[in-house]
Amino acid sequence: RTLSPLGMAKPGATGARFGLQSEYRPLKRVLLRHPRDAFRSQSSISRQWRQLNYIQEPDFSLALEEYEQFAGILERLGAKIEYLESEDDLGLDSLYVRDASVVSSAGAILCTMGKQARSAEPRAQGVALENLGFPVHSVIEFPGTVEGGDTAWLDHKTLAVGRSYRTNAEGIDQLRSALEPLGVEVLAVDLPHFRGQDDVFHLMSVLSPLDEDLLLVYSPLLPVSFRERLLSDGFQLVEVPEEEFYAETQGCNVLAVGPRVVVAIDGNPETKRRMEAAGCEVHTYAGAEISVKGGGGPTCLTKPLERA
């Protein structure tokens, strides 16, 4: 199964029916991969979890239960789910579908992953997107690397991109070249070393858009210049408390399914209270198996394809 050259959109092409350049508009269509197709079985999990740097071994049966709750929340809030199939050359991390591509109004930009164990995911996702009638706009080519978790639309013309161990300068340059014809500013954000090269630390580990002028952030790990830019652009910042950021419960990773309507992992009560104080409707799910152990919150689990 390969990408069709005819499926590649011409650079600069636009199409209103494809993904809006937004992280907060009402979510209408979303791409997921169920843990039955990513985790497959308890024995498959047992073979892989250590080498993929999971903090603990997920329980397969509990993961299935958690995911049904998570997907049910998305459906109740108005999203149509498109499920990716199981692939023989993909591992546990393929559950976290955000990372394999970046969605623009002209179609998907397929990534080259910074984590080598995930190298097969972008092409597999590209084939699936074509089969759904969603075009591939362009591809990040090695030695450039970009992972979708390092990208966040601040508005429809501004894409923040974390320069991390998973996303390098060459990848950011290629992403900028792909989006420039669409009039998009790609804003590079230098991320800290934090826990090192083997840790999963993306831009969306410290920033999640909640509305057009509202962001959930963990300021101690934001670069000063970037935080100042956010404030000068008129964003209100909801701060994640230190204890909930370091509790492994993905406190700063929150999916907006509409303006100030968000989905978050259960277990961050103060963060939830602060979002509600800012006018957010917060829906929580149990995520010990599908999110906490693999380091992937609700934005990681989802690839929004269409927003209203």
Short characterization:
25% of the residues lie in helices and 23% in strands. It is of the alpha/beta class.
Mind explaining what this structure looks like?
There is one protein chain. The chain has 308 residues and is an alpha/beta fold. It is globular and about 50 Å long. Strands 2-1-15 form a 3-stranded mixed sheet, covered by helices on one side. It is built from 9 helices and 15 strands.
Task: Specify the number of helices.
Answer: 9
Helix fraction, binned, reads 25-40%
Structural class label:
alpha/beta
Number of beta-strand segments: 15
Proportion of strand residues: 15-25%
Keywords:
308 residues, alpha/beta, 3-stranded mixed β-sheet, 9 helices, 25% helix, 23% strand, disordered N terminus
Task: Provide the fold topology.
Elements: E1 27-32, H1 35-38, H2 42-48, H3 60-76, E2 80-83, E3 101-104, E4 107-110, H4 121-131, E5 136-139, E6 151-155, E7 158-163, H5 169-179, E8 185-190, E9 207-211, E10 214-217, H6 224-232, E11 236-239, H7 242-245, E12 255-258, E13 261-265, H8 269-277, E14 281-285, H9 288-292, E15 303-307
